[in-house]
Write a structure and sequence with these properties.
This protein is of the alpha/beta class. It folds into three domains: 20-222, Rossmann fold, CATH 3.40.50; 239-322, Ubiquitin-like (UB roll); 327-412, NADH-ubiquinone oxidoreductase 51kDa subunit, iron-sulphur binding domain (de novo design (two linked rop proteins)), CATH 1.20.1440.230. The protein has helices at 20-25, 30-37, 40-50, 62-70, 92-99, 101-115, 132-144, 175-182, 211-222, 262-269, 303-308, 327-341, 347-365, 372-386, 390-394, 397-405, 407-412; strands spanning 78-83, 119-124, 160-165, 206-210, 239-246, 252-257, 279-284, 291-292, 317-322. Helix 7 links the parallel strand 2 and strand 3. The longest helix is centred in the C-terminal third of the chain and has 19 residues, at 347-365. The structure holds flavin mononucleotide and iron/sulfur cluster (SF4). Iron/sulfur cluster binds at residues 171, 188-189, 342-346, 349-350, 387-389, 391-392.
Length: 416
């Protein structure tokens, strides 16, 4: 199986954004022309057939989301590109926006046509402010060429977009918190239902999707049917962008077909562990993902294999941690992140993260209580099942996986 492919990333390094002519030279906007020649129904069916699942972390089927979104009729419908990318260790969306912004924006226009969206907004992570000018330039170039605005490419499609600078908090990547922050309130998640598809921004129907999802839509429509699904497995068709980082020799963004093993990703794309050290564990899916021991490295990166183990591919981050790393130091950094980023709306997450940090502090200092192993399980269980949103639900994942896979490192190493 080919390890590093270029489908979603096929335009990387081929043109210098925001050079629209350069993008067109490599087939840019042929996907939009093809999409506009199809009925909305056929276009949605095309995305459904591709098996594409959202690349923002939750892996919701994109075609299904489009179909549900299309069903909500209103005078205004918003389409939001979630470029908040706050997950530590994840940087593939930044690479897509930097290297091929038109691929993302074209996917947004295609989606707008499919679902009947009237206004597009790219919610850009505050720390990506350096991309603002480039993205504004790309949108302006599209407007000049009739690819945004009234009657796109001579059709009846009216759609334009703007950029919203993010609020600088991890929780604002969550779809409803993102919308709250856009409306001028603190970024805290909303009750669901109503789902954003029905009532999102300013209570209008709103579709929120990830940067990579929009790029994938462009690639799927641009290429003949079967090209995207020619990669990957039957249940996980296509390719995925991986943010490979940590103690590897060759970190970076890689587009891989689903089905590659973590070991192949680390050894062949990452060129192994820096300093020829052994791997202590790999954290997959970002900071909210589990710590997987070496024994799990043969696991193929597919939705079905991860689901079977109760794991998630999440945003596609693969963080490699070498044998010299102190696992308690690592877990302490994870806990500190979640304590800082908890929005404070619900008690299990707000208080649970504090308590987990206190226990970890005791463990690092060698003063853990005999009841602490049980305390961890109890607090983590409450957080997982009673937190209001995904942040609190997944905050204890790294700690629980470390206890599962290497309890001796956690509980016995310091004489506890
Ligand atoms: C705490 C938290 C943070 C999130 N951060 C992001 C993010 O930075 N980018 C993103 O696309 N999705 C993020 N999500 C997922 C979004 O809520 C939403 O599912 C996603 O943007 C939908 O796009 P998709 O269908 O293309 O995956 C986050 C979810 C949670 C619970
Ligand atoms: S789980 Fe955490 S981030 Fe989510 S609503 Fe509760 S306090 Fe806020």
């Amino acid at each position: 199986m080919k390890k590093n492919v270029a489908l979603i990333t096929e335009n990387f390094h081929h043109y210098i954004p925001p050079d629209l002519a350069g993008y067109k030279h490599f087939g840019g906007f042929t996907a939009l022309k093809k999409a506009l020649a199809l009925s909305e129904e056929d276009l949605i069916e095309r995305i459904e057939d591709s098996g594409l699942r959202g690349r923002g972390g939750a892996a919701y089927p994109t075609g299904k989301k489009m179909r549900q979104s299309k069903a909500y009729q209103d005078d205004i419908k918003y389409l939001i590109c979630n470029a908040d990318e706050g997950e530590p260790g994840t940087f593939k969306d930044r690479d897509l926006l930097e290297q091929d912004p038109f691929g993302v924006l074209e996917g947004m226009v295609i989606t707008a046509y499919a679902v009947g969206a009237t206004h597009g907004i790219l919610y850009l992570r505050e720390e990506y402010a350096h991309l603002l000018e480039l993205l504004q330039g790309a949108m302006a170039a599209m407007r000049r060429e009739g690819l945004l605005g009234q009657g796109i490419l001579g059709t009846a499609l009216d759609f334009d977009m703007t950029i919203f600078s993010g609020a600088g908090a991890y929780i604002c990547g969550e779809g409803t918190s993102l919308i709250e922050s856009m409306e001028g309130r603190p970024g805290r998640p909303r009750n669901k239902p109503p789902y954003t598809k029905a009532q999102g921004l300013y209570l209008k129907p709103t579709l929120v999707s990830n940067v990579e999802t929009f790029s994938a839509i462009t690639a799927i429509v641009k290429h003949p049917q079967g090209v995207f699904t020619g990669y990957g497995t039957q249940k996980s068709p296509g390719t995925k962008l991986i943010s490979l980082c940590g103690n590897v020799n060759n970190p970076g963004t890689y587009e891989v077909p689903f089905g590659l093993t973590l070991e192949e990703i680390i050894t062949e794309l990452g060129h192994g562990v820096a300093g020829d050290k052994g791997i202590k564990f790999v954290q997959v899916g970002g900071i909210s993902g589990p710590l997987l021991p070496r024994a799990c490295l043969k696991m193929p990166l597919t939705y079905e294999d991860f689901d079977a183990e109760g794991l998630s591919i999440g945003s596609g981050a693969v963080l490699v941690v070498d044998e010299d790393t102190d696992i308690l130091d690592f877990l302490d950094a994870v806990a500190a992140f979640f304590k800082h980023e908890s929005c404070g709306k619900c008690t299990p997450c707000r208080e649970g993260n504090r308590q987990l940090m206190n226990i970890l502090k005791r463990m690092r200092e060698g003063t853990a209580l005999p009841s602490d192993p049980e305390n961890i399980q109890r607090i983590a269980h409450t957080m997982k099942y009673a937190s209001f949103c995904g942040l609190g639900k997944t905050a204890p994942t790294a700690l629980l996986s470390a206890i599962k896979y290497c309890p001796e490192e956690i509980f016995m190493r310091r004489g506890q």
